[in-house]
Amino acid sequence: MSAQPLPSNDNDVSIATISPKKEAPTSSKKLPPPEKPTDVRRRSHVILSFWLIVLLLGLPIWWKTTTIYRADLPLEDMLEWADGKACRPVFPLRISIQATSLQDQEAQNLLRLTQHALDDLNDFAGHHLRLQMGDEKQDSADNGSALTIRLTPGEGTTATLDPYEPILDITYPQNTIPSPTASSSALATYIASQLRTTFAEEQATISYLLSTNSMPSEHRPLGLSPETAEALAKRTTRSLKYAPTYHLTFSLFTSGPLPSSWDIETAIEEYMKPVLDVLSPIHNFTIDTQVQLYASPGVQNQVLNKEDLSSFINAAEWPLSPSIGGAPTINFIVFVGNQTIASPSQEAAPTSHSWLIPQWGTVFLLSLPGDTTHVAAATLKQPLLTFTSHLLSLTGTPESGSLPLRLSTLARIRSADLLLRASSTLGSLARLAMALPSISIPSSVADGVTKTMSHLRLACDNLGGTEGLAHARIAGAEAERAFFEKSMVGQLYFPDEHKIAVYLPLLGPVAVPLVMGLINEIKAWRKRRRERAEKGAEKKGE
């Protein structure tokens, strides 16, 4: 049976004659639809607006609120003061000569020869004595002289310093008066040597102050002997730093219930007040008193050796009065007991009842009968006289000469000391400002520096007088106030690492999206620009 062909159908597909179609390859990543130009512009405007806000608004506000204000300081002038180049300390002291028994020509000739002798003896140009003729009716304070020499005829040549007035009485034989043609005179040489001896301690002290500060070599005095320098160093260490006001605390300490009262106000008024009055042009004093019962010294021996003195005062058990008003306190303690201080060479032979503690005060051991209930003012005479002597030492008063001369010398020494300290403080402030560029310098510091330099100039021009001391005192206070400005001291301990630690957690989360968005937008812009360039090239080729 023969095979019959299948009926044909137009819809049928012949497998033999039609091969299957190949499918087009499909991409695994579906591309996003192209961005509309409006969307591109909108995204660019958003990113640009954020950056404009940051640059035009954020940065100026940040800069304004975080910029450290630094007032302009005359750094070069400040360093010149610190180096001693702005002021050459000169202490001209005027000495008046009263010679009523001499004729005017003889007195002038003697003054001229004495001045020449003084100039020959003086080896420190910064401290020189200038002689002038004085009026007998005027005292030293009226004519502005540091000392008055009264020449009186006599049998021999003698010199006596008045203990209560700045007056040097010199007697001379009539045959020692120099002739008008003489080039030298034994009397003039004698007067010059007496003046040099009278002011030797002052000159040595000022020389020591200048030599221990940064003074130029041409302004420095000649070197002091090792013995003199050591003595001056000990006195400087013992005395307190200058302050316009000191607080004096008088304390009565007893190891038992008696005595329970003392007449300290009367004793101070009678034995110490005169010295406080003469010190008033240089220092002011405030006073308080107290009585402390059952104050154990911690040393039970009747004879105190040198090693016992350091442990005699027990600050933990002896409640001493604190400083009042910020003024340095000088303590004067009267301890009622039977202790005495042994001599260093013979410890069995008590030789003293008091000792001075450098930069602190004095302790006086007072022996009283056991039944004494009240300490009278007369009993306190010796302790108060000792306290007065030690007060002069603690304030840096020279040890030689009459009291008026010692106090006038103290004023000049304090003027020099304050001038040098204020100048040194200006130099420290200038070096601090240059070493720390990021430190804040408020306008108050600049004003303080200006006032300091102004008063330093006035003090330098008036050294040796009360006006110079007043200006030096103001200059020292202004310099200290400028250097220890609170806002400056607080930023001394704020390094740049702290700023990074503060800013990084705040700005990091904000800066990263802004920076990445800007980078992506720049890349997209460059890609669009490149595509437009390629299309333009194709059109030109067609």
- Which structural class best describes the helix and strand composition? alpha/beta
Q: How many β-strand stretches?
A: 15
Q: How much helical structure, as a percent, in the residues?
A: 40-55%
Strand order of the largest sheet: 2-1-3-5-4
Strand content: 5-15%
Q: Ranges with pLDDT <50 over ≥5 residues?
A: 1-24, 345-351
Radius of gyration: 45 Å
Note the quaternary state here: single chain
- Taken in chain order, the helices and strands follow as HHEHEHEEEHHHEEHEEHEEEEEEHHHHHH
Q: What integer is the average pLDDT?
A: 83
| Most strands sheet | 5 strands, mixed
How many helices does DSSP assign?
15
Report the end-to-end length measured between terminal Cα atoms. Answer: 69 Å
Spatial shape: elongated
Outline the secondary-structure elements:
Elements: H1 37-66, H2 75-82, E1 91-98, H3 104-121, E2 127-133, H4 140-143, E3 147-153, E4 158-161, E5 167-172, H5 186-198, H6 200-211, H7 226-238, E6 245-254, E7 261-262, H8 264-279, E8 284-292, E9 303-304, H9 309-312, E10 329-336, E11 340-342, E12 350-352, E13 354-357, E14 361-366, E15 374-375, H10 381-394, H11 403-435, H12 443-461, H13 466-483, H14 486-491, H15 496-541
Parallel strand pairs: 1-2, 1-3, 3-5, 6-8, 6-10, 7-15, 9-11, 10-14
Antiparallel strand pairs: 4-5, 11-12, 13-14
Helix pairs in contact: 1-15, 2-11, 3-5, 6-11, 8-10, 11-12, 11-13, 12-13
